[in-house]
Amino acid sequence: MTLQHFHLDEIHWHAERPGNTPIFLSNRHGYLVAGIDGRIHSYGDAHLVGRMGGLWLHPVRVMHGWQLLVNQQPLTATTCHVHADAIERVYMSNDVVITSREQMCEESPGLDLYVMVAGTLHTALTLAIDLDVRGCWFGGVVDRGATVQIDGTTARVIPTNPEVGAAVVLQCNDAWQWQFDGQQLCLVGAVSSATYTCQIRVHHDRVQVAHSQVQATQAHPVLHTPDAAA
């Protein structure tokens, strides 16, 4: 169970809900369907059975979902704050507070994901993205293979298949690295207090994934207020 908070202008309510309770973000570019606990879940019993959730940036479906892992075990959010334009989750791992925030990009088709770590993890934190790049069934696009660009390195998407290219490891810097196993894209690294960002953008000829690190003093503020979290 995850404690869900819903915020809309002056309206606020909260309740404990099952972790796979679906929540939504949307704008003129597309929409995101995810669970309140921050883990990857399967939604839908028609069209794409079990894969109606995730990130859709028309005319393509970009990913099935994402999740955080510590010691290769998915983290479950203790609290989820749902706002009109963003989703924020709070996790605990060995007394270290980890906060994630995701919001749709307004300027272009895309998703911005922030992971804020308050403390030092003595093990690797993994951001795992389950890629599933395909044309929307109602978007008028025939799957013919797309290009995924990850921090400047490209790989091909197999047409009409959710798997992505051949296995490849993409080195980013000393602390972090992309591990790309053909379907799941993982950003792995040992972390201390800081904010880590991941940006997903859809262009006319490619899907682009990039990451960066912001020092703790520049960390993006959390969305919920102390009163709302009480």
Can you describe this structure?
By secondary structure, the protein is an all-beta fold. The chain is built from 1 helix and 19 strands. Strands 2-1-8-9-10-11-18-19-13-14 form a 10-stranded mixed sheet, with no helix packed on it. Strands 3, 4, 5, 6, 7, 12, 15, 16 and 17 form a 9-stranded antiparallel sheet that branches.
Keywords:
230 residues; mainly beta; ten-stranded mixed beta sheet; nine-stranded antiparallel beta sheet; 1 helix; 2% helix; globular
Entry summary:
The chain is mainly beta and 230 residues long. It has one helix at residues 226-229; strands spanning 2-8, 11-17, 22-27, 30-35, 54-57, 60-70, 73-74, 79-82, 87-93, 96-104, 110-118, 124-135, 147-150, 153-156, 168-171, 176-180, 184-190, 194-202, 207-215.
What is the subunit arrangement here? single chain
Separation of the first and last Cα atoms: 17 Å
Instruction: Provide the β-strand percentage band.
Output: over 45%
| pLDDT < 50 stretches | 157-174, 215-230
What's the alpha carbon Rg, rounded to whole Å?
17 Å
In order across it, which strands form the biggest sheet?
2-1-8-9-10-11-18-19-13-14
Tell the overall outline.
globular
Please estimate the helix content.
under 10%
- Summing up helix and strand content along with how strands pair, one would put the structural category as mainly beta
Main sheet attributes: strand count, strand direction, barrel closure? 10 strands, mixed
State mean pLDDT (0 to 100 scale).
76
Counted by DSSP, the helix tally is: 1
Q: How many strands?
A: 19
